[in-house]
Design goal:
disordered N terminus, 4 strands, Outer membrane efflux proteins (OEP), 11 helices, single chain, four-stranded antiparallel sheet, 445 residues, alpha+beta
Length: 445
């Protein structure tokens, strides 16, 4: 009965420790919202996305007219000396001349400009895919950092609970030695185990501080109490249950793959754009100018106005082989982008399969550890009862306690890994959104 009472006290100690966080503790969704506004990596991705949106108006501008205004004002000091017989007299004239002009150029045919405009659309799509990937990456980083803090807290709490249990076992060994029912070896064994778990507690506390600082880096605030997994935590089988269907989905919607596809298309259009350097260009040109001078070489001033409209054809003939070289360079880059796209496809398929197996195996592992925890609790009960009747030693009890706490810690870790694998699988197929964080958040209390 005494052994059973001790075991129950350990169970209630662990339960009390796991429920020690106040109702006002921050949850995963709140932490994610804080990271959205505070994480420097995500802020940089947002700025990059905003910059990428400007590629389209820049590309469009190459097809629209350009208008330039020019103006001048000049002081002239001319000295003229005529040779021979002339009706004009030599002399010096000083006068001011000024004027302005407006020039308009409207591209009619410029192959390179048109290809640059089509590339701009792909660049915007690429920027959108990159930002979508950054949003999903933020969810994963926040969830990973959040659960890392939780498992670090669990490790500290389990070390404290185990230390308390071993302390009770140590005191019991000392009493039994004093009354002559046990040897000093039992005391040494308990003391050695106590010292070991004391060191483990120090390491766990240090690790907890590191994990909190990692989460702080995302939210720019030192985390306080965090909500833990509660009774709402449930294991859910994947739908669909066919791994290859998840891979097919990833091949269509994964953000990283979308970026690689856009890069491959851009590389192909870059070849066409550079080949356009061989093509002629045709522009509509118009200009208007007025010039005024209050003097001149003949001693009189003049005002002039000029307006002109026409078309201008330019035909590149030879540029030292630069265009051919750029085409060859673009073709090589196109081949590289194609290989990188194939690499991305293979990597995404691998990541999707890994995440899928992480969820499936995670479910099996959690169930196995739940059963192992029950068995470990029964083993500890039996070991304590066996010690009472003399068929188990103090070392057996200490080993049973160690197994119980190790199993409980492994169970916590498996539960967190299962949740992370779920998020990673959705990120792999490109469907990870805030609602998925909210769903995981419902399992916290």
């Amino acid at each position: 009965m005494r052994a059973m009472t001790i075991t129950k006290s350990l169970f209630f100690t662990l339960t009390a420790l796991s429920a020690s966080f106040p109702a006002g503790a921050a949850d995963l969704l709140e932490t994610y919202h804080a990271a959205q506004s505070q994480d420097a990596v995500f802020a940089a991705a947002r700025a990059t996305h905003q910059a990428g949106q400007e590629k389209l108006p820049q590309g469009r501008s190459l097809l629209l007219p350009s208008v330039n205004l020019s103006a001048n004002s000049t002081f002239n000091d001319n000295s003229i000396k005529y040779q021979g017989t002339t009706p004009f007299s030599s002399g010096t004239s000083r006068f001011n001349s000024h004027g302005y002009g407006v020039n308009l150029t409207q591209p009619l045919f410029r192959q390179q400009n048109w290809m640059a405009y089509t590339e701009a659309g792909l660049q915007v799509a690429q920027a959108d895919a990159q930002f979508n990937g950054a949003e999903q990456d933020l969810i994963l980083r926040v969830a990973q950092a959040y659960f890392d803090v939780l498992i670090a807290q669990d490790s500290v709490q389990l070390a404290e609970a185990q230390k308390t249990a071993i302390s009770e076992q140590l005191e019991q060994a000392k009493r039994n030695f004093e009354v002559g029912t046990a040897t000093i070896t039992d005391t040494y064994e308990a003391q050695a185990r106590y010292d070991l778990v004391d060191a483990q507690e120090i390491a766990a506390q240090s690790n907890l501080e590191v994990k909190k600082r990692t989460l702080q880096q995302l939210t720019n605030t030192m985390p306080g109490d965090l909500r833990q997994l509660g009774q709402q935590f449930k294991l859910e089988a994947l739908q669909p249950s066919d791994m290859e269907k998840w891979v097919d989905e990833a091949q269509q919607h994964n953000s990283q793959l979308a970026v690689a596809q856009a890069a491959a298309e851009l590389a192909g259009k870059e070849v066409a754009r550079n080949r356009g350097g061989h093509y002629p260009t045709l522009d509509l040109v118009a200009n208007y100018s007025e010039n005024f001078a209050n003097g001149g070489s003949l001693g009189v001033g003049s005002d002039s106005r000029n307006a002109a409209v026409g078309v201008q054809l330019n035909m590149p003939l030879f540029q030292g082989g630069a265009i051919q070289s750029k085409v060859r360079e673009a073709e090589a880059n196109r081949n590289r982008a194609g290989e990188e796209l194939e690499t991305a496809r293979r990597n995404i398929a691998l990541q999707t399969r890994q995440a899928y197996l992480g969820v499936v195996n995670g479910i099996a592992q959690v169930k196995a550890l739940q059963q192992a925890l029950k068995s470990s609790e029964s083993l500890l009960e039996a070991s304590k009862l066996g010690q009472e009747v003399g068929v188990r030693t103090n070392l057996d009890v200490l080993n049973a306690q160690q197994q119980l706490y190790s199993t409980r810690r492994d169970l916590y870790q498996a539960e967190y890994n299962y949740l992370i694998s779920q998020l990673r699988l959705k990120a792999a197929v490109g469907t990870l959104v805030e609602d998925d964080i909210a769903k995981v958040n419902q399992a916290l209390y």
